[in-house]
Amino acid sequence: MGANSDKRGRMSGKFDHRIERKGTGCIKYDRRPELDPFWVADMDFASAPEILEALHRRVDHGVFGYAQPHAGLNEAVIDYLRVRRGVEIPLEQIVHLGGLVPALSLAVKAFCKGGAVMTCTPVYPPFVGVHQDSGARLDTIDHVMTDLGWGFDWDAMERAVTPDLRVFLLCNPQNPLGRVFTRGEIERLADFCERHDLVLVSDEIHCDLIFDEKATPHVSALNLPEKFQSRVIALLSPSKTWNIAGLGYAFAVVPDDSLRRRFSAARGHTLAEINALSYYAAEAAYRHGESWRVELVDYLRGNRDALVDFIERRCPTLKVAAGEATYLAWIDARGMGVENPAKHFEEKAGLFLSDGAFFGWPGFVRFNFGCPRERMMEGLEKIAKAL
Ligand SMILES: Cc1ncc(COP(=O)(O)O)c(C=O)c1O
Prior knowledge:
Blueprint: E1 4-5, E2 11-12, H1 27-30, E3 36-37, H2 49-61, H3 71-83, E4 94-97, H4 101-111, E5 116-121, E6 137-142, E7 144-146, E8 149-151, H5 154-160, E9 165-171, H6 183-195, E10 199-203, E11 232-236, E12 250-253, H7 257-265, H8 276-288, H9 290-314, E13 319-320, E14 328-332, H10 341-349, E15 351-352, E16 354-355, E17 364-368, H11 373-386
Parallel strand pairs: 3-15, 5-6, 5-9, 9-10, 10-11
Antiparallel strand pairs: 1-2, 4-12, 7-8, 11-12, 13-14, 14-17, 16-17
Helix pairs in contact: 2-8, 3-8, 4-7, 9-11, 10-11
Bound molecules: pyridoxal-5'-phosphate.
């Protein structure tokens, strides 16, 4: 990671540098300033220098009227899809958005009228909330431990299908489990969607944060055989990888014309124009951010390994499986014998962790290790002490 040693021989590199975030109006630190936060999914790192430069250039222009995607952004997105996702996507199949969560909500609104949506839990909380925006029903199925790690309970999914089921929401890579589903799993899921005539909405926001792309390559819904493409909505964004979530930019790829029209029409007048700066940040991320990304993933892999090692050695009542992607660790705290582990860590250690109950699984906590290693270790020490 381009690390240097300081005078005492300690390693330090750009991701080791601690940046004060308190008082910058960020959710993570300023919502509960009295707590030490390892919750919401953004990182404590400055974004890539190439992105900061692009933003400075755009800010220096000084005029921030309504924006549209400029040619450079469109090219960068299409090149990204070709080079990183292995698909040739014509521009008209892309729907630009100010965030990915609104897209989940739009998909349910567009395709679930009077019907139901299915997803597997534990999962990023909006997956179990967006059905409320349009009065749809939600059916959840628990993920189960399989030979591949946390996987799908195919039998339970089949049993839960009802005639009014319309949409399946997939999170791949999976937040919070950190799984990168295999081609076999994704194709089986597509087949499930085809047999029950479901729209497959695939949230792939974490797909550039995979620790070993050779061992666990990302299989996008866009990589599925052609026959499935008429039911696919793939949702992507540079926001997690380059730590620009607060700027708000994401995009949907909807290969089928009719599906895309219905998805876009569901927006009505509910979504604001997209932030003029976000387009330039996204362009710079996709065009110039690859070497920074590779260094970041390397650093995060080191954090993941140190975290798993710490929990195994020092926290006998906790369990964690090494995730294959994301900077989020899903920790089984049921062995602690307390009703609400997140609350316990808050009260005993002043920590702000994500409560598994919001993901559908009480008794678990999610720990965000997208931070300097030294800071992560301090948080883990607090956890060990509070056990
Ligand atoms: C799986 C997943 N989807 C979507 C989001 C948020 O996307 P956005 O900020 O673009 O709405 C997150 C943020 O943590 C996430 O983990």
